Amino acid sequence: MNIDLNNIKKVLIIRLSSLGDILLTTPLVRSLKNQLPSLEIDFLLRKEYQDVYKYNSQISNLYVFENNFSGNSIELLKSRNYDLIIDLQNNIRSKRIINKLNIPALKFHKRTFDKILLVEFKINRMKNLPQIPVRYAEVIPNFMLDNAGLELFLPDNIYHKINGNNTIGFCPGSRHFTKQWPVDYFIELGKLLAGTGYKIVLFGGKDDRDLCKQISSSIPKALDLSNDNLLLQTATDMKSCKSIICNDSGLMHLTCAVNVPVILIMGSTVKEFGFKPYLNRNLIFENNLLSCRPCSHIGRKNCPKKHFKCMLELNPNHMIDKMKKFLQDL
């Protein structure tokens, strides 16, 4: 499809989920608005992720998708008279919305076949692909992103709960078991860092409350700041950290969005999928000696080989020296 952005006045961007994927759209939104200041950009996402764009002044209208996306909602979108839809979700739900609106649409290429080749047959046709924000931008012909990273706009009335400059954050949760570093390893690492003078803070959402409590209660003077999915509070508190240690999760991308250096621990997934920290200072640990990685592009509920070596062989004692050097250089 030939698109002249100079003739586009209103655009609807669709990315319904999940947290990390939506945060990865922020460079595209910013670059579009900077290059075309008069462009009206509306965004459609799921209700639970609306805080990502709630205070973003680059968005003209933020629309919330719920399971019962009604005819009234479609009529509201129709009334905006969009010139173009940018579908970064590209699934059945987004296609239904596009069909009902009957507006020209550019769609994100999900590389589904390449993912299957890499996961099932270890044929890697993704190693030279750019990261997801760049791939989002490639949806628009001849469009280039700026050189800045992810971003999140925070209101002034949220106050951080962390004092001191020697704080390290832990984000131990993940939606999938094979992307989650073992609890005992987080505890062991926390004790090692606490022993050298760092204060450990736990971050997580509603599903991570028990996990964060278990870890924080086992580390001297650790602070548990997990909450009921208060994204903006979590982001505000993250900004007070020297660095944050994460699994491959939405909170890893949130760390990048608030420009805090991240230490990423990767298990069943690999960097080729495009989700490593984007334009943010980082240190990545992964087990590159296993022929079974990746076993999934999103994570699994258990290890298909029953050994879970991708995580179990990433022992804190073997990682601590590199982590200390990374932290000292910040």
Quick take:
The protein has helices at residues 19-23, 26-35, 71-79, 92-101, 112-121, 132-137, 183-194, 209-216, 231-238, 250-257, 309-312, 316-328; strands at residues 10-14, 40-46, 61-65, 84-87, 105-107, 167-171, 199-202, 223-224, 243-247, 262-266, 282-286. With 330 residues, it is α/β, with parallel strands linked by helices. The protein folds into two domains: 5-137, Rossmann fold (3-Layer(aba) Sandwich); 167-328, Glycogen Phosphorylase B (Rossmann fold), CATH 3.40.50.
Protein model, in words:
The chain has 330 residues and is an alpha/beta fold. It has two domains: 5-137, Rossmann fold (3-Layer(aba) Sandwich), CATH 3.40.50.2000; 167-328, Glycogen Phosphorylase B (Rossmann fold). 31% of the residues lie in helices and 15% in strands. The chain contains twelve helices and eleven strands. It has helices spanning 19-23, 26-35, 71-79, 92-101, 112-121, 132-137, 183-194, 209-216, 231-238, 250-257, 309-312, 316-328, and strands spanning 10-14, 40-46, 61-65, 84-87, 105-107, 167-171, 199-202, 223-224, 243-247, 262-266, 282-286. The strands form two sheets. A six-stranded parallel sheet has the order 8-7-6-9-10-11, with helices on both faces. A five-stranded parallel sheet has the order 3-2-1-4-5, covered by helices on one side. Helix 7 packs across helix 8 (209-216).
Give descriptors for this structure.
alpha/beta, Rossmann fold, six-stranded parallel sheet, 11 strands, 330 residues, single chain, 12 helices, five-stranded parallel sheet
